[in-house]
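Appendix B. Chain record.
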Amino acid sequence: MEPRDSSIENLLSPMDRDTIGEILNISMGSSATTVSTLLDQRVSITTPKVEVVKAQDFHFEALEPAIAVEINYVSGLSGKNVMVLKVSDVRVIVGLLLHTEFKEEDFVLDEMNLGAICEVMNQMMGASSTALSQFLSRSINISPPTSYKIENAEQFKSKYFEAYDPVVTVHFNLMIGDLVNSEFFNLMSPEFARELITSLGSGGEEGLKKEQEQGAQQTPPEPVTQQAAPQPAPQAVSAADPPTGPAAQKPDPQPAVPAVPAADPPVPPVSQPAAQVAPAPQASPARQAAPQPDAPAAPASAYVPAASAPVLHTAGQQPNQPGYAVKGASYQSFDEQDNVLTSGQNSNLNMILSVPLEVTVEIGRTTKKIKEILDFTSGTILELDKQAGSQVDVFVNGKPIAKGDVVVVDDYYGVRITEISSNDEIMKLL
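Structure tokens predicted for this chain:
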């Protein structure tokens, strides 16, 4: 088979690789918190290093003998990824989970030990899918992980990839207390990696360039808006000026004053001096300062265009309305209720509201026979009726009132409520 023409290095840009590393760093950080609680040890999963290589060039001799854990995504994302871990690390993890110390020569990957590591991976990847759901703003579910020992490296690689197929490898450092200081790999196809980037809404370098171009196109209109803002000012002045005529040639702006009020449409007498009209309350201070004592009266023809022209109202001016009484709006006060509680009733209500109620969260249920329950031992695994990442039920005094998603806050489990009953329904249940 001939190598593909497309360059392996160009399948994912450096920005795409950083994006994948950041996504997996967040999801694996949540997984580390879950495994830490499960094993009662401090767990750290850090420093993701993303590379794209041909399947035939991927080597993991440093991890051999190794175990593979396959995770399939059933909703939210389409695809799978495979984790490759050291058997020695798995031995420590299973020993912590079962509270048993295994010697290296005595540890066998039998059904029980494989089931134990699958349970750890199920909890780990369940927390990872929950973190991805929150990060990508979509519901993501996985199928129960399957694990097996890698007997032959070439057969393992050919199970998922052709010899010249590109493989996205993500290298992680793994630390479990003082017991493990190791590493593991996460393998995925470029298509699955691209789906992660697309789900995040990142288009790599091209998306960043488009955002920069859009930002550059939106920047120039700002100074245009600032230059256009002062233009209405000269228009307002020109609207207040009288029309061309004999009065327009005079520097005295007194004839323009009667054009402002709307309640005085009659033409003032010719014999009335213009200086008497200037103190009108609607005139601006600038207009009041303009008249001079010795200014001659304007001819009557100067007022006719002002009366026939459209009446202009400045902000805050109202036409004179004869005989109207203006009253403020009155609104009903909702604070005044007929059934006002007395001090004794308030005291009783406060006592009722302060009663503590038991709040429990149920992640799932199962049914077992008495014989099976009597066979329970330390390390027994119970399979519940809900998948990892599903919503959990919130109960108050045994009554279901809400649903939510499991979150981790400061190394403690919590629930983010997504659905809740109304207060009336809650009171009826309680």
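Further analysis of this model is presented in Appendix C.
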